[in-house]
Design goal:
Blueprint: H1 6-26, E1 32-33, H2 35-44, E2 55-59, H3 60-69, E3 76-78, E4 91-95, E5 99-102, E6 114-124, H4 128-147, H5 161-174, H6 178-191, E7 201-203, E8 215-216, E9 223-228, E10 231-236, H7 239-247, E11 267-270
Parallel strand pairs: 2-6
Antiparallel strand pairs: 1-2, 3-4, 4-6, 5-11, 6-7, 7-8, 9-10
Amino acid sequence: MQELTLKELQNISLELLVALHDFCSENDIKYSIAYGTLIGALRHKGFIPWDDDIDVMMPRHDYERFCRLFRSEQYKLIYYGNDITALAGFARIVDCRRTHYVAERPWTKQESGVWIDIFPIDGVEDDVKMYAKRYKKISRFCHFIYKFRRQNHHISNEDSMYSKFKTLIALLIGLNGRIPILFLKKMVDLEKMIDYGSTRFLGQCSCLDDGPIQFPVEDFDDYILLDFEGYQFYAISGYDHHLKQLYGDYMQLPPIEKRIPKQYWIKFFWKQNN
């Protein structure tokens, strides 16, 4: 099996983003590139040179509509709503035809390859202490669910006996996905408890890298097109304030030692027929 180069991984990720953009434009669904992808558009007019993934965010109502409607002959949408073994609180569009991946704790039991992440954005409390309290509850659910990802691991002869034992225990306790998916659905209900736009702030609670940061709703009022690798994709008009909240001076390059792929612990491969 041949491992994808960083450039090959970026190219397939870009194809996935083009498919998402085309579908959203045809169906009047709002989205914005996010995180490192948004920084890349502003600082590099494309990928951050060492970045290995693409992130997108959508208002909750657009996210749920997207998950209901998305269809593609080339790519697959995988999330907790159509796969009980998909142990993540957000959706992914995946290239399963040409690529696959290897990780100790696979996020889904079904075949998966290069993906892009799609994060829902929800309303959050105006009182930051109340938001932090709810965020802490969401974190507990998230960490509990993550422990069950081992049940998606395909046991091989190379695994140690201890590794095989942990996978077996995860399978038994998790009832092959039935227990963690119940907790995941409870977590999602907790995430979307406050309607988008009903308060002055928004938040991203499905992936817990941000912490309980309140994003002003006006930063998400309008969407503009930004250049990215020769294409144009949508971004929130309040991107500058949004990114400064997350990263500070996001236009400044990080130290050399921090210029590493975010998914360095995951290996992506071409399928044998490619």
